[in-house]
Amino acid sequence: MTHSSSAKTAQPHIPARTYLIVFGWLAVMTAIEVLVAASALPESIKVSLLVTVAIIKAALVVLYYMHLRYDSFWYWIILLVPVFFVLLLGRYLILR
User: Is 8 a member of any domain?
Assistant: First the structure.
């Protein structure tokens, strides 16, 4: 069974250097998370910093390793609609 080339979408070539740079940033942010978790900061500041770094790391993974940065607008919709409902549910559970 062969597939026609018109069924494939053209993806830009992403150099290995980009992946290594993103990997470096993820490693640095992981080290920051470890340092923040081990620090004597107040719990509310710790949690805020850790959540912020985790969101940035998740965005880097989604954008570069899952190639969402180079995909169509509809993939963004497929990602953001469930994220919206998770945030809505989280807000409901926190304020409950």
Answer: no
pLDDT tens-digit profile, the chain (96 residues): 555 444 455 667 888 999 999 999 999 999 999 999 999 999 989 999 999 999 999 999 998 988 888 888 888 888 889 989 988 998 888 877
The answer to whether residues 79 and 57 belong to one domain is: no
Q: Are 92 and 61 in contact (CB under 8 A)?
A: no
5 lies in some domain:
no
Nearest-angstrom CA–CA distance, 16 and 42: 40
| The model's pTM | 0.73
Cα separation, 28 vs 31, whole angstroms: 5
Question: Where in the sequence is the domain holding 93, given as residue range(s)?
Answer: 72-96
